[in-house]
Amino acid sequence: MSLRERKKQATREALRTAALRLALERGPENVRVDDIAEAAGVSPRTYNNYFSSREEAIVAGVTAGRLFAADRPVVDAVVAHYTEPAPEAFMLLMRSPALRACYADTVTAIEGPLVAAIVARAPDVDPLAAEALAAAVGAAARVAIRHWLRAATEPLPGIVVPAGSLPDLLRAALAPLRPALDALFSPDGAAAPPARRAAAPGP
Q1: Residues 6+ apart with CB under 8 A from 141
Q2: How would you class 197 by CB atoms within 10 Å of its CB: exposed for 0-12, middle for 13-18, buried for 19 or more?
Q3: By the 8 A CB rule, do 63 and 85 touch?
Q4: How far apart are CA 133 and CA 114, in angstroms?
Q5: Is the separation of the CB atoms in 42 and 15 below 8 Å?
Q6: What would the pLDDT profile of 97-140 be if each residue is shown by its tens digit?
Q7: Given pLDDT bands bounded at 50, 70 and 90, which one contains residue 191?
Q8: Rounded CA gap, 121 and 5, in Å?
Q9: DSSP for residue 125
């Protein structure tokens, strides 16, 4: 990365770290944007260049450092990606409807890294197919996490989903996609990826 990009990354890291720390110390409802900016050593105006709300910064702190890696079965990598935060960080989500909503809206952030992983592993794959598969993974994870958050905080009659079952929910939601994912990322290359689309014939 360039020096400018490294500085931007460092600023984002400082903001999300400060946001999570303050939320854990005070409770998310008692944290202001100005507090986060001051703790990170930047101005509120700079803060607004990175996050649009305190919830967004706190959720970024909850999900910080979890880079998607596809050097193992993809479903396992996706489950690990979404279930690594410390228990105290997830407890913030349990206590705050605003944070839960923000978290559910950001889980599809895995799509970009997954597209990159697909293209890196199978450079001949159709870009449209790579994006579609990544979008399907993001959508499945979003459904699983929304179900988990709702069931853990607003239990529905006849539905028992303990908080610790998030990995199982993710695996169940991703099950229909497992054959395509496993074939695409098969270490021995047993299954060929979808070929690139041929250029459309001219008139």
Answers
A1: 78, 82, 107, 108, 110, 170, 173, 174
A2: exposed
A3: yes
A4: 9
A5: yes
A6: 888 888 877 777 778 888 888 888 888 888 898 899 999 998 99
A7: very low
A8: 26
A9: B
